[in-house]
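Page 47, continued from p. 46.
Same chain as before, 137 aa.
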Amino acid sequence: MPSKSLRQHNFMAMVANDPKAAKRTGVPKSVGEEYMKADKGKTFSGRKGRTDLQKANRPKTNQGKSELFAEGGAVKKEPKEMIKKEIAFMQKKGAPKTMIKHEKAEAKAMGYARGGGVESKGKTRGKMVTMRKGGCI
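Result:
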């Protein structure tokens, strides 16, 4: 009878090769030798565990993650040249001025104009509180 797992295989190998271990565990040495004979040529990969926790069986999805962020956590930005080409193409094809204005505003929001961008969009800017006349005495 062949072993079902690597752990069982290792246990039976110990029993087959160590008479003291066979006596201590209560498994006859002949049973360990029988398992070793049946396991000849069979390979056991390490611990398998739950299949849903294995990386190979999990497809990479971006559920719960913003698509604005790249693999390393940095914000994806469209190159300046691409934005310029896009705006030029829209002007050439006669796109509405509001659409072109929107593209330019989007480019500014991405941080090409003066810093800031997606990471600061929608956040309330705080005001620095200063104490007059020296504060507490």
